[in-house]
Each structure stands twice: as C-alpha cells, then as structure tokens.
Amino acid sequence: MSLPSPKSRRIVAAAAVAVSGALVIAGCSSGSSAESIDKTAPKKLTGTVSLWHFFTGREAGVVQSAVAGFEKANPGVTVDIHAGQDDEKLQKAISSGQNIDVGLSYSTAIVGSFCSSGAFRDLTPYIDRDEVDLSDIPKAVRSYTEYKGKRCTLPALADVSALMYNKPLLEKAGIAAPPKTLDELKTDALKLTTYNADGSIKQLGFNPLIDFYENSPEHWAPMIDGSWLDSTGNSEIGTSSAWKKLITWQKGFVDEIGYDKLKAFTSGLGQEFAADNAFQTGQVAMQIDGEYRTAFIKDQKPDLDYGTAPTPVMPGLGNYGSTYIAGNVAGIAKGSKHPELAWALLKYLSTDTDAQVTMANGLKNIPTITSALESPKLEVDENYKTFVDVAGNKDTMTSPGTADGAAYIGTFTKFWQAYQENGGNLDQKLKQLDEDIDNANQLAGP
What we know:
By secondary structure, the protein is α/β, with parallel strands linked by helices.
C-alpha cells in the first residue's frame, strides 16, 4: 500500500507556501473573477477540461476514480489531469496565464490570497444560478472556503485532529479511559512517563512541546475554543484570557518535565510520517494527530493496539467532541477557457455525495459534506469514526483566511515556541504578538 507524502497530508502546515505564493498572485489582476456567466447552465456538456492537483502515486489514482464518475455522468467531457502540481506550481501557472481550468490546493491558507487577487473566480454567480444548496457543507468548512464574503473555492475533503492513545500502555498504568480534560491529560501523561537511570526520558506519556508533530496553535485551539481575529481582521489572540490560560497550562507542563529533557528526547524520535513515528513505536503513549494516521498505522504498524478520542479540553472553555478542521480547496482559475466545464467538474467533486465518499475511502481524509459523512458507503472503523464524529460536531472550528495566506498562524507558532523555552512576561509578549500580526495584516492589504 502506497502512503501519502507529508506535503499532501499536512494540509494546514502549508501556510508558509501559501504566503510565498500570495506574493506571486498579488501581481495578478482580479480579471475574469467578475465576468458574467450564462444565465442558464448548458444542458449537455462537451469538450475537455483540465484539473490540476497535488496528489501523486496511489492517491492520484483515487482522484482519477472520482473523476471517472464525472466523465461517466458526462460522456461528452474528458478531464485532462495534471497530477503532482503543488500549490507553488499552481500559483505560478495561474500567474503566467497557463490554461488551467480547475485547481485543487492542499491548503486553506491560500483562500485569502486567491480570492482577494482574483486568481480563482468568484463562484457565487454559478452557485446562485444553479441554486446549489451549500447547507450540506458544515459551517466551519463553509467559513474557510470563502474570504470576506467572497466564495472563490469549494471544499474537497478535510483533515481533523483528535487524541490517539496506546491502549496497553494506558492499561498498564491503571488508566481506565482516555483523558477528556487538560488536567486529566497532564496527570495521565506524567503517570505514563518513565525515565532512564541518568534522568533522561525513556517513554513519554504526551509531548507538550508546541513544535512536536501535529502540536500547533490550530490543533490545540479546540481545547479552549480559541479565537483568532476580530471582525475588523485584527488579532485578538493576545487579549484572549482563554489563550493565555492554555499557554500558561502548556508552559507549566513543559517546565514540570523539563524543556531540555523534552527537546533531547524529541530529537531522538522518528520522523512524523515515517514508520518509526514515536506513537507507532510506543515511545509516546498519547498524541494529537489527524485521521490519516489510521491509514499509516494500518500500513506500517498493523498490530498496534490503539484507540482514538476527541481532543481533551479545558473545562468551561473548550467544547469536548469538537475539533479543528481545514482541508483541500478547489476553484476555477481566472484564465479558464472552459468555465462551464470547470464549474461542472468542481461542483461534482465538492458536492456529489458518491464522489466525496470515493475520495474519502481511498485517501482516508474526511468528507466535507454532511451527506457523505453520514453515507453508509463511507468505510468507517472504530478509530476512524472518532474523526468522522468530531468533523460533524456543531462546535468544530477553523481559522480565518487573510490576504497573506494566514501568516498570523506562523507568527503565533514562533511566539509560542520561543515562550515555551524562555518564558518571560506573558502579558507583554502577547501584546507584542498582536501588534506583529496586525502590522503584517495591514501590509498584506485587503
């Protein structure tokens, strides 16, 4: 079984690429995003439409299977697929005027730059004309596929996060059930942590370092239902008592074990997307991870006895059972010469239940329409079901897009990495964090 590359799986972590891409796209005129469309949709579609996507190998074959369903439903249409085209290639191709009809990105971070620049067309005229009901798309997903009221993308599968735990290790430590609160997480993690004779860590219950694997502000935000930007686009991270409580909790956790000990232990662990992933080897008993880990374990460590549960939360702040969601997004390139074909293909991949189920079953990502999440055709085992359930939770959240590719998340991450090591006056540092984010957002423009 061929498994995905880190790039195709770490959907949210593509923000840095999106930021650099935003600089490329910024020079493009908004052009055809505002062009008028036919008042009625063509009754019969014919011709060739191109699809650019980032998947390769086995995963590209899964996308091909979904596209085959579209071609079967539209026998007069051929889809010309360009696989292995990452966001940077896609952005450069659109900027240079290449003939791209539909582009599929692995990062929600591009939405702000692509919508504001016009690199992707405004889809609202098509949605209104064809009376497409977007209510089947969960609220958080609808949120991250538009920017300042402009919808230039639709979703095509997502990643969500949850807690994964090693059942035998918890049982051995006398822990009957996975933690639901942050205090329980810390207590259980310390009980599960063992040390070598020299005091170095032998086995870690949970790694609290914010730069370990999927530990990031986004994936930890559900712990406190964390907010990011206010209605004017300014950062409200620094003035949030919830974020302050979470950062303080995490810093205390790090200090109790020891930052240097944690860094030394972490430096000796395997790569996140390799077979020697620390959770898969048993070196870490619990971790926050994505639904795709279930596929990695099935392939690389099929005998691992593990369970999944919603991310633990801070009582009174987080909503247990919710998660952070972000994912693949697709749009019609501004220079598309076949916009009606492009719209038909995009609509199919994003809103057709069977198409979403086909891709989800093959890629083991999460469907982005409720009808697919609830479809009996969706292949759901006990561990994958946790991710399906949290994806459909009413309190599941995402992060807003910005014109600079959601660069504020990277700024926040660097801040947190520095604070967990050096500490200092948290109030003062949080105030500076807000200023840094606001200054960058102003430079990026509308």
